[in-house]
Amino acid sequence: MLRPIKKTCFSLLIIFLPLCGNSQGVQLDSLRNELEGHTLQDTIRAGLLIEIAGEMTYSSPNEAFPYVKEAIAISEKTNWIKGEALAHRQKGNLYYVLGDNLNALDAYQKALVLSQKMVNKQLESSLLGNIGNIHADLKEYDKALTNYRAYLSTAQSLNNRPDEIKALSNIAIVYNDTENFEEGVAYLEKALALAKLEENNLFIAAITNNLALAYKKLGQNEKALAHYQEAADLAQQIGNKYIEASALNSIGKINVLLNNYGMAETNARQALSLSKEIGAVEWESDSWEVLSQVFENNGNMAEALDAYKEHVQLRDSVLNEEKRSELTRKEMQFQMERQQAVALEEIKRQELVKNGYLLGAILLALISILGYFLYKRRRDALEKRKVAEFNAKVAETELKALRSQMNPHFIFNSLNSISDFISKKDIQQADDYLVKFSKLTRSILENSEKKWITLEEDLELMELYMQIEALRLENKLNYRISIDESVEPENTLVPPLLLQPFIENSIWHGIAPKQGDGQIDLLIKKDDNMLEYIVEDNGVGRSATNTKAKRKGSFGVKITSNRIDIINHLKNTNGSINLLDKTEGLRVEIRLPLELQF
Amino acid sequence: MLKAIIVDDEQHCINRLDGLLQDEGYDIEVMARCKTIDEAQRKITDSSPDIVFLDVQLGNNTGFDLLSQLDTFDFEVIFTTSFDNYALKAFKFSALDYLLKPIDKIDLASALQKLREQRNLKETSKKIDILFHNFKEGNESSKRIAIPTLDGFAMVDTNDIIRFQSDVNYTHIHTLSNKKITASKTLKYFEGILESNTFFRVHKSHLVNLSLVEHYIKGKGGHIILTDGSKIEVAVRRKEELMKKLNPGLES
């Protein structure tokens, strides 16, 4: 099916009917009779129904729908896909003729899907042509061209010349519509050549007419005139008055332009009678227009006015119809666009919903992950704290154990001293020693229970200890305790008795073996956040000490070292013990984290 | 010449004290040396001594049992003990004098000198009352304390003490009855005595009764408000422990 007459842009574009016929009415009647005789719901009946609907396309499209509907139903029931496709295409044709592009497109698309399903290239390509027509009508020229080109290439591959001609012609029409007349002429010439090969006069007449119009638009009046003349002759020859009337009007218009008024009048009157014969109002109007111009030129103003009135009246009626159909088309287009917009909106909405869900899911996942990590971190922190607390407890217990280990060690050393006095029969000294020892022991017992005591208390203890040892060494021992000004003994907390093993070491292994008096200097100072004890003696030093005594002395030192390790672990500090050999004696430096009571 | 009685269930302890009292040439006559509380009770009634040296642990009994059996005290008491934290604490609460065994002659000398200087039988009787009260009650909630003041002793229920505030070598004690007692002891002394009670050293200069804390105000160390409306600064280093004490359930 070619596109119907395009009335708006150009006066004539040719429509190729599926079944061209003067014998239309006759054929329709015989088909109807045949249908009545064949009530069986089979493919034959379906085929008949489609044929009848086809015959009714232009005469009574509205009444043709029930036939198409039945054909579709039968085809579906009998699984006759081709029938179904043809029926849908016919339905599309009906809608198309009625100007309902939207429904037409829908029907064509259904038919196209079916044709592709059964791999019917012929049908498929003609449907592409139909769809192209709709796009062209909707001025969607790109889409129209795409469809027509597909139509053309299929027709060429199938060697279907009529379809090829139709495709070429329609492409040309699109070019002309877009005022690309050179391209239009080129395609029309191709179509014309093929039509001549085909010896199809209708096609030749229609194409020649269109060619003439294109030439006129290109300003080649002579060429246009020749082609119109040819078209008119050919139309007359095949009895197509529609084309003939159109061509004659066009010739008339050119003759007016060429000032051949006599010729123009002849053309116009001929066209007018033909138009009236076939009821082609649009051509009638054109004829009146030419006549009006002729009369005007002849000075026959009254007739000119009448003719002009006729022209305007008819033109208006045509235009009204055009306007109506244009309006309908516009409405269709609008509806289609609206539907498309709605569909797009829906797609967008669904996408939005989808994205929303996706976003929600991602968010939920993120929150879950975050929640898990927070939970895990908290749990880990709690666990860590528990472990740390447990470790601290273990360390405390160990410290306590170490503190209590200190006592027997010291006690027995002291008892040893008392025994020494008794053996020397110095009862008074033994008694003094014993009282002091009992005081010291009491203090140690009380204080070793504590984690921390004040430096003041600890130094009192150390002094008591050194007094006792001085007593034992019969005042061979002198001691001096110096506290740096920056240290507050009453506010500084220290682990109890930390120094005792080092003082003991200095006395027993440094000063006791020495000839003459010994001196112990105890210095306490502050260094940043560390408290520093320095125990210095002028004893014999480590090199002079025999290995046995060294080992014995290192027992208390080892305990202190362990205590400092634990404190370091608990407080995350770096307390340390350093033993430095001097030329005479030993210097011990102990560094502890500075702890203040307030 | 002061009359003295030594009560101790161990002969060598009696011997040592006896020896020290004689050697140093104090103006003291030891009237009796008793090993049981019954014997001691009799001797005290018979000879009405000026001083009783009383061992805390007497076999299955205690020196306190002896005192509780007596109707009146017209003598000074100096307790003797070797190592008994519980008893020591009781002595400190009641400000009664005591000597630790083995007895140091220097300690004995100072105890006797103090006794001669501030002999006050009425106060001794009060101190012994406090001792009995603290022992009888047996609970931590109602303890009484003899607070050494410039002119004697103030007997106060620890529940009535709101806070202690140090003032160099003195300590001011604020009580619920709005009384301010100035003690001739350092804050450290009271902290030592009241250590495991509801008292807590929140600051170098402040020992407070935690059961009378009304409010804690957050801060670096923060402040506490006590029942009497006094606002006491908390030392930064004491904050954590204070929180633990105020909220024992907080740390799990």
TrEMBL record, chain A:
Membrane-spanning intervals of the chain: 356-375
UniProtKB keywords: Membrane, TPR repeat, Transmembrane, Transmembrane helix
Domain Signal transduction histidine kinase internal region positions: 397-477
SMART domains according to UniProt: TPR
Superkingdom field: Bacteria
Ranges: TPR repeats: 85-118, 205-238
Name of protein: Tetratricopeptide repeat protein
Automatic annotation (TrEMBL), chain B:
Domain Response regulatory: 3-116
Keyword Cell inner membrane: no
PROSITE patterns in the record: HTH_LYTTR, RESPONSE_REGULATORY
SUPFAM superfamilies: CheY-like
GO molecular function: DNA binding
Post-translational modification 4-aspartylphosphate, affected residues: D55
Positions of the HTH LytTR-type domain: 145-248
Gene3D superfamilies for the chain: 3.40.50.2300, LytTr DNA-binding domain (2.40.50.1020)
UniProt keywords, alphabetically: DNA-binding, Phosphoprotein
Name this protein carries in UniProt: LytTR family DNA-binding domain-containing protein
Species the sequence originates in: Flagellimonas okinawensis
